[in-house]
Amino acid sequence: MKPVIALRDVTVRYPSGVFGCREVSLDVYPGEVLGIVGESGSGKSTVLACANLDIAPTLGSVEVMGVDVTGVGGAERRALRAKSLGIVYQTPQQGLDLDVTAGGNVAERMFGAGHRSYQHVRARALSLHEAMELPLERFDVVVKAFSGGMRQRVQLAKALVTSPPALLLDEPTSGLDVSVQAKTLDLIRRIQREHGLATVIVSHDLAVIRMLADRLIVMKGGRIVERGLTDQILGDPQDPYSQLLVSSQLA
Amino acid sequence: MSAFAEILNERKPSGYAWAYLDEDSKREVRRALLKAVCIPGYQVPFASREMPVARGWGSGGLQVTLSIVEPNDTLKVIDQGSDESMNASALRDLIARTTGVKTTTDAREATLIQTRHRIPEDDLAEGQIVVFQVPIADPLRVVDPRTSVTRRLHAERDYSPVWLYLYEDVATLAAPSFTHSYPVEVEGGYVMAPTPIPRHDIPRLNDAPFLALYGAGREATVYALPPYTFVKPLEFDDRPFEIEAFPMPCALCGAAESYLQAQEDSDPVRYVCSDVAYCRRRRESA
Amino acid sequence: MKPVLAVHKLRKTYTRHLFDGRKLDVLRNIDLELEPGTFTLLTGPSGSGKSSLLRCIYRSAAVDSGSIVVRVNGDEVDMLAADDRTVLETRRKYIGMATQFLSVVPRIGALDLVMETGLVRDDAADLLRAIGLSEGHFDVPPATFSGGERQMLTLALTLARVRPILLLDEVTASLDRRRKKTAYEALMERKKTGVTMLAVSHEIPDLPGLVDRVLTMHDGELG
């Protein structure tokens, strides 16, 4: 079985000379959740951006469904993202147009994938809207009027509407109230299982990681310092930095 | 001095270049227009000059007209179908006084037609040029104000935001944002804003015998549709593009297929042709 | 018959990077074999390494050296040599691990939680009742359960999936006598189906026929 997303020795060096990440390799297979933890500046966001084809690696390669897509751009990248990658950003503004309706935000992704039938697009967007447990009467309401938790659900609906095999989550619950966080995580958990999605979740919150991720990589200074099974790393971290991270968060 | 130059020299009012603009400015616009004609629907940037017309009032269209007008042209200028409106009159005056060209209200006679918001009702022929005044040239302007972004979107033919706005129009039943600048797809794949002409006029652009030129002064771009270009309004597979329908024919001339304007101050409401000259001619020959 | 689980020369040390950097021996050269269908009890003072041994077998704790071989249905997997995904797969198919407390407490009712393992509603309800959790608990999220109730639910979740090897870490520690008895009976029923069990406990269950062998650990050594 091929990984849905694979990064091979990816290094990102920005023009300023700063390294986003160094020699990062990872695989994500269908049905599993890979967590990426680290503090800010660890490189975890850079790695996610590479997986989402937002950034092209300076060195190394990115594969999606077994195909090398390193550095792909333009219409090809757009098609690939529409078809294979769903992403939920940390802040809804990054992934949604707040002045557009919930249905419209989801529909746009379908238009990007080439759909041209109004009824079909609308019906599909509506089914995702309902699957994300959003209220029916909000379907044609602009997202600006939605709460944070609801906005994240719209992002999820949008990510999943084209049935991509991969789902990328960037701190999906940060900024949400604790009770809303729990509901959102439960939803993510459910859809990940239902659809067998290859999921990558970036978080600084180990409780979120523990709940969702099967495997984990710990990042520091752009590098992976430890990788393995989630319960093993959180229960028995070996690397000094991992020990620090775990002990500071999990009592 | 050449014969042509003599004519130019003779006819201009003193103090002005012939056709108001200096020759270098005209040359630049013409170069941009040539490029535009070669790539239908593609927005070509040009250095927009200061005109004695406020931006948003036809400065782009005016620059196009002034750059291509020739001494033996016959000019018609309309604004929403009327030759007599203040804006149309002012523009026509400026062009006529700095060139000495003949003017007309009959679209069939005109060789050069500058227009805001309408295509004349008369069938137009090969050899005629229609210059459209454009308030917003880029159909993707709503997506992002930065040209760097929209240019890339056009290059990649990434028009999902345009489809999104069509969707929003239908879904929210709000005042359609595309009432008068319905996006069209041009041969070659570019999506273009055909300026705020009514839906009624959009099918006229497809496979048209005339040359259509578009000038946007504020955005400093020109674009074009050479004759016989394939132009199709963007439409969902299941919601065909429809032109406006009126409940009754023109109250003045009886035309059933022209674009009408409602006159709400009369009771009951009546509809009259927006193309005033066309309507008058029909009445006079009836 | 070949042992279903064979642990050989297992060694684990723990380095206290955050403290004094000292290296501690947690497990010293452990050899252990489990025959299919048997219940082995692992006992010993706290700190002796018995929970660590269980977690190492499950791979929820890191191991320095040695081998842990699982043999089921002709399949043979060395849990230490295998890659992470194989380990996850092996756990899913062959090894269930129950610890004292639920590590993750999602906000769905206990019955739904058990049904997530794949059981249909009736079977899930039967299981919960067999463990000792009554109907009143079915729609309640475990967050509100008492310690003992959570422990019962953990055991129920472990038993919900049928796996040939079960690792049980102090699964009855918080239960009163009556509930302990119910738990042991549930384990006995499962044992009858041929499941192999390795249980850590500081007390020996008094249900006859349950425990086949008692091993004692002391200071990281089995003996």
Sequence-ordered SSE layout with sheet pairings:
The complex is a heterotrimer of chains A (251), B (286) and C (223).
Chain A: E1 5-13, E2 19-28, E3 33-37, H1 44-51, E4 59-64, E5 67-68, H2 74-84, E6 85-88, H3 92-95, H4 102-112, H5 118-131, H6 148-160, E7 166-170, H7 178-195, E8 198-203, H8 206-212, E9 215-220, E10 223-229, H9 230-235, H10 240-249
Parallel strand pairs in A: 3-8, 3-9, 6-7, 7-8
Antiparallel strand pairs in A: 1-2, 1-4, 4-5, 9-10
Chain B: H1 3-11, H2 23-38, E1 44-45, H3 59-68, E2 74-79, H4 86-99, E3 102-103, E4 112-116, E5 129-133, H5 147-155, H6 160-172, E6 184-186, E7 191-192, H7 202-205, E8 211-216, E9 221-225, E10 231-233, E11 260-263, E12 270-273, H8 276-285
Parallel strand pairs in B: 2-3, 2-4, 4-5, 5-8
Antiparallel strand pairs in B: 1-9, 6-7, 6-10, 8-9, 11-12
Helix pairs in contact in B: 2-3
Chain C: E1 5-15, E2 23-34, E3 39-43, H1 50-58, E4 65-72, E5 75-78, H2 84-94, E6 95-98, H3 110-115, H4 121-131, H5 147-160, E7 165-169, H6 177-192, E8 196-200, E9 213-218, E10 221-222
Parallel strand pairs in C: 3-8, 3-9, 6-7, 7-8
Antiparallel strand pairs in C: 1-2, 1-4, 4-5, 9-10
Helix pairs in contact in C: 4-5
Give structural attributes.
heterotrimer, A: 251 residues, 6-stranded mixed β-sheet, 4-stranded antiparallel β-sheet, C: alpha/beta, Rossmann fold, 10 strands, 30% helix, globular
Give the structure's gist in a few sentences.
Chain A has ten helices and ten strands.
Structural features, described:
The complex is a heterotrimer of chains A (251), B (286) and C (223). Chain A has 251 residues and is α/β, with parallel strands linked by helices. Chain A is 41% helix and 24% strand. Chain A is built from ten helices and ten strands. In chain A, strand 4 (59-64) and strand 5 form a beta hairpin. The termini of chain A are far apart. The mean pLDDT of chain A is 93. Chain B is an alpha/beta fold. Chain B folds into two domains: 3-233, Bacterial phosphonate metabolism protein PhnH (Rossmann fold), CATH 3.40.50.11310; 246-286. Helices cover 30% and strands 16% of the residues of chain B. Chain B has helices spanning 3-11, 23-38, 59-68, 86-99, 147-155, 160-172, 202-205, 276-285, and strands at 44-45, 74-79, 102-103, 112-116, 129-133, 184-186, 191-192, 211-216, 221-225, 231-233, 260-263, 270-273. A seven-stranded mixed sheet of chain B has the order 1-9-8-5-4-2-3. Chain B has a three-stranded antiparallel sheet with strand order 7-6-10. Chain B has a two-stranded antiparallel sheet with strand order 11-12. Chain C has 223 residues and is of the alpha/beta class. Chain C has one domain (5-216): Rossmann fold (3-Layer(aba) Sandwich). In chain C, 30% of the residues lie in helices and 28% in strands. Chain C has six helices and ten strands. Chain C has helices spanning 50-58, 84-94, 110-115, 121-131, 147-160, 177-192; strands at 5-15, 23-34, 39-43, 65-72, 75-78, 95-98, 165-169, 196-200, 213-218, 221-222. Chain C has a six-stranded mixed sheet, with helices on both faces. In chain C, strand 1 (5-15) and strand 2 form a beta hairpin. Chain C is globular. Chains in contact: A-B, A-C. The interface between A and C is medium-sized, with 24 and 18 residues.
